[in-house]
Specification:
single chain, about 350 residues, Rossmann fold, 10 helices, binds nicotinamide-adenine-dinucleotide, oxidoreductase activity, acting on NAD(P)H, oxygen as acceptor, NAD(P)-bd_dom_sf, oxidoreductase
Length: about 350
């Protein structure tokens, strides 16, 4: 028997309703100093998709910390521009340019060999290359293959190639896989992209667990989920201005990097400091925070949290797929967000 809209909604009993504790973090034990053991001067970062957008911003921001940067991309012109920017920050000897198509295993093996040959180890491996080719549920088969080959198998190729080396090297490392909110809440519009990013979430969760369970593996995995970021993928071109709702690639990357880098504050200071949120984020990552969900100027963190809970509620509470966009549930969803924000604010 189908549930009616009203009977499926039991606000006060649903474990998926936000409650006041949702907004607060547990007090976190103080940490020493502000330097992450992995994102650190002199360490090595490998970034795929570094020829533009978020990957380029990651390359320049990590260079500002004094890291050595290996940049990989299929777009050689983009790589040349990134090289120039990174070299200006950290010097030519600390930039390695390796044109790579991540969908091709032999090219990824070449990338690993080059980096280890030059620098002997890797601290940050950022799987960021991605495309936004469009495929709907029953059209665009070519786009489905392309997108899966880059967004999914690109990461699988890199993981399969690098992780055995990362596990056996002396110093710790982290793997950052770039996912998307579209892989979590699955908004209609590009089924192929959403499916590829849902797969990235799933494989990164599996990776984190497997690394945790591997004795002596000093490697962690993290899912980096940008908000709306103004890059080539989302329509940026030299002449167009960034829409007010989007963040720049630099803002998105800084949000992630600051999570690890801002010196920890004592708990007492945190409670009255404007840096409270950032320092709490920092401590969560130090404690192994896995999901790094980035806001933008249009979607604040609390709205993301509520949308994610609603999406989980479709499954747990037996609503139709993607009920957020279902005509019978739209009003209910909007009310849920209103109520949820009232509780969280
Ligand atoms: N821009 C956003 O709003 C947004 C939001 C969520 C997630 N993301 C993700 O962030 C990542 C970076 O995207 P971006 O927004 O900076 O877009 P972008 O197009 O500027 O950067 C993507 C880069 O990946 C490279 N690339 C494409 N195919 C490749 C391949 N086969 N091998 C190697 N490199 C390849 C491209 O040449 C490009 O330089 C992607 O994984 C994207 O899905 C972006």
């Amino acid at each position: 028997m189908a549930l009616s809209v009203s009977s499926s909604r039991q606000p006060s009993h649903s474990p998926l309703r936000p409650n006041s504790s949702f907004a607060f973090e547990n007090p976190i034990s103080p940490v020493d100093g502000g330097v992450h053991p992995v994102i650190h001067e002199g360490k090595v970062a490998v970034i795929t998709g570094a020829g533009s957008g978020i990957g380029r911003a990651a390359a320049t921001e990590l260079a500002k910390i004094g890291m050595k940067i290996a940049i990989a991309d299929i777009n050689e012109e983009g790589l040349a521009e990134t090289r120039k920017e990174v070299a200006a920050i950290v010097g030519e000897p600390n930039v390695l340019v390796i044109p790579t198509d991540v969908s091709k295993l032999d090219e990824v093996v070449h990338l690993r060999d080059k980096v280890y040959e030059h620098w002997g180890e890797v601290s940050v491996l950022m799987n960021n290359a991605g495309i936004g080719a469009r495929g709907t549920s029953w059209s665009g088969l070519d786009a489905w293959h392309k997108i899966m080959n880059v967004n999914l198998f690109g990461i699988v190729n890199v993981q399969q190639t690098f992780v055995p080396s990362l596990i056996h090297q002396e110093n710790p490392a982290m793997i950052i896989n770039t996912g998307s909110k579209q892989g979590i809440t699955n908004p209609p519009g590009n089924a192929a992209y959403n499916a590829s990013k849902a797969a990235v979430k799933s494989l990164t969760e599996g990776l984190a667990h497997e690394l945790r369970e591997t004795p002596h593996a000093n490697v962690t995995a993290h899912l980096f989920v940008p908000g709306w970021t103004w890059t080539g993928m989302t329509g940026a071109s030299g002449v167009q201005e960034k829409p007010a709702g989007a963040w720049s690639a630099q803002e998105t990357v800084l949000y992630m990097v600051r999570i690890w880098r801002i010196p920890a504050l004592r708990l007492r200071d945190r409670l009255c400091s404007p840096l409270t949120l950032v320092s709490l984020q920092l401590d969560r990552v130090r404690e192994g925070k896995f999901y790094v969900i980035v806001p933008d100027n249009e979607t604040r963190r609390e709205v993301d949290q509520l949308r994610i809970m609603w999406a989980a509620g479709d499954v747990a509470e037996g609503r139709p797929a993607l009920s957020r966009w279902h005509k019978d549930y739209k009003a209910l969803f909007e009310e849920y967000i209103r109520d949820g924000l009232a509780i969280l604010d």
